[in-house]
Amino acid sequence: MRYQEIVPTWNVGGTSRREKGPLQLRDAPRTSRIMQIGRSDLADFSYFLAIARHRNFRLAGLELGVSASALSHALKGLETRLGVRLLNRTNRSVTLTAAGAELQAAISGPFEAIAQAADILNRYRDAPTGRIRLNVPTDAALLLLAPVLPVFVDRYPDVEIDISASNRLIDVIEGGFDAGIRYGGTVPEDMIAQRLSADIRWVVAGSPAYLDKHGTPETPADLKDHRCLRFRLGDDRIYRWEFERDGEEVEVDVPGALTLDDSPLILSLLTGGAGLMYGPEPLIAPYVEAGQARWVLEEWASPGSGYHIYYSSRHQLPSGLRLLIDLIRELRPLGL
Predict the structure, then answer these.
(1) What is the full DSSP assignment across 289-330?
(2) pTM attached to this predicted model
(3) N or C: which end of the chain has fewer CB within 10 A?
């Protein structure tokens, strides 16, 4: 069928997050109808939400335990029944249409509420126990786990968590870990991944003493005349600082006498005036707020994928790990 430019009125288990009652899309005609929702529609809505989160049929299928082709078939059936296109699909990308974005905003809340209610019932059914091992980058340990773990150990005192905080890229399965945490773009393709944070901006900062002495760079090209604190990646490559402004993307192989692989040490050198630091905005922001650092090249800040937790699709998810994921998504220390 040919997709129309109209969208029916929705009534899915209550009001949307915007609290405006049933969703009424802007292009809907005055004669919009209320759609009757059946069991198959609810299942397809959950498929749609997974696809919308991942923007990828394969990753959504890994999360749900459904093949990408089955997801595609279900989504086409849902679009046909609704009479409106929800996704734009090409060989390289999946994006939401305006209708798809409206639908995601309207039904995400109710579906999350159902998942949280089911989780509460599971807690009554059996008190979680056991041990989970995690491999995480040092920044993720500081920014994502540190705010959550005090709540977790109070809520689930019988679950033991063993965390290896390291920037080294390892095979988590071979290393005996239940899961790992990485930025979204670096998750192995054969793993199930779940987003744990919003996207993160990468920024540059310098101490007041350094900037007063050496001046403030105005463009990324000016960094060649500055002392930069270089960062070594988990695969031993030196990170090239990435910048973006108005669609222009720039990578700079910055100069610097100091190369490190530990963020707390780099932060100490930043505040001590040893050079400019490039890193995740949430990591540096407290030092800027305290007056120990200043933002540099703010208009060139580069957006990056947020943190994702990943684990094998061949093993059952430990209950303790599932509860930790749920708690991170509940508390949202880095947004979501």
Answers:
(1) HTTS-EEESGGG-EEE--EEEEEETTSPPPHHHHHHHHHHHH
(2) 0.62
(3) N
